[in-house]
Design goal:
Elements (H helix, E strand, L loop, with lengths): L12 E8 L6 H17 L4 E4 L26 H13 L2 E11 L2 E9 L5 E6 L5 E2 L2 E2 L14 E3 L2 E5 L8 H9 L4 E5 L3 E2 L5 H22 L3 E4 L2 E4 L8 E4 L3 E3 L5 E4 L5 E8 L2 H8 L21
Parallel strand pairs: 1-2, 2-3, 9-10, 10-12
Antiparallel strand pairs: 1-17, 3-4, 4-5, 6-7, 8-9, 11-14, 12-15, 13-14, 15-16
Helix pairs in contact: 1-2, 3-4
Length: 302
């Protein structure tokens, strides 16, 4: 069957930027660099800027320590005030990732979205929490309770998810079903330096493929912003090499832009009108058998 793409459609192009960075040692140093990079991104035309997961400091989840809870802050709080002012200064919609102190003993891994006027447009609390060697997040983060709800902004309806959520097609699908126009993933993922090169490549390829799958299955652009650099393990292990490779995908999983393994500002032009066209030729939402998916609510089909 020949599918024609020669269809006249009203397109809306959105300039986006992803800030792929390393840890600079302190909250102040990291936020100062973020302010510089967001300014550069805005001067380059970006209207939507995505930051990496837990960008204020080191990826502290390599071990379990009650002292690390001192990193957490309330939302709203000092970082939301500073980042909101940053969004307002440059007239961009900004997506950040913070360690939220909700109450004594109750903490979340939370993405916060700022409107271009500096106000908080909404937030998303990470739903899927990993517990793997080097990624002991269950010790720190309570699973999110805000659901998979897109956040409305002046540049579009954003389906914001966080890192480990990227492996679950259900989260991406539910964001799409709620009208998200883009899927965004602040991320902190890397490999063990002691792994073989072949294993490293398999892991990174699988990560990229998962995002491409979300784009294709939902007919939506996907933005994934990862951190970079080697971060030592407090346990004396080999630590983590965060592999970067941040990317922007179109609604058929095509690469619009991709970074390498170093600090970068990744720019791309996202055609929001293209999703409508792609969903017309690949009507996956139309053909879903919602009458036959009840077993998805089971942990496993015994």
């Amino acid at each position: 069957m020949l599918i024609s793409f020669k269809v006249a459609m009203k397109h809306k192009t959105l300039p986006v930027a992803l800030i792929q960075e390393k840890n600079h040692g302190t909250v102040e140093a990291n936020l100062t660099v973020i302010e510089e990079r967001v300014g550069e991104a805005a001067r380059g035309g970006a209207q939507l800027v995505l930051l990496q997961e837990l960008h204020n400091g080191a990826y502290f989840c390599q071990h379990e320590s009650v002292d690390e809870f001192e990193r957490a802050e309330c939302i709203p709080g000092p970082s939301t005030q500073r980042l909101g002012a940053l969004a307002k200064r440059h007239r961009v919609v900004l997506v950040s990732s913070l360690f939220e102190r909700r109450a004594a003993g109750l903490y979340h891994n939370t993405a916060v979205v700022y409107e271009a006027d500096g106000s908080v447009a909404g937030k998303y609390r990470k739903m899927h929490i990993p517990d793997d060697p080097g990624f002991y997040e269950k010790f720190y983060f309570t699973p999110g309770d805000l659901g998979f709800t897109p956040i409305d902004t002046s540049v579009g309806r954003l389906g914001v998810l966080v890192c480990w959520d990227q492996w679950y097609p259900e989260g991406a699908r539910l964001m799409a079903l709620a009208g998200a126009e883009l899927l965004l993933y602040p991320t902190a993922i890397g490999w063990d330096p002691d792994d073989t090169q072949a294993e490293k490549e398999r892991q990174r390829d699988a990560w990229v493929l998962s995002h491409r799958g979300h784009a294709v299955a939902n007919g939506l652009p996907v933005l994934s912003c990862n951190r970079v650099g080697h971060e030592i393990s407090p346990l004396g292990a080999s630590g983590i090499d965060f592999w970067g490779t941040s990317h922007v995908l179109g609604p058929q999983g095509e690469f619009l832009a991709q970074a390498d393994g170093g600090p970068a500002i990744l720019h791309a032009e996202v055609d929001l009108g293209r999703s409508e066209h792609v969903r017309r030729i690949w009507p996956f939402l139309r053909d879903r058998r919602i009458d036959a998916y009840q077993d998805l609510l089971k942990r496993y089909r015994d």
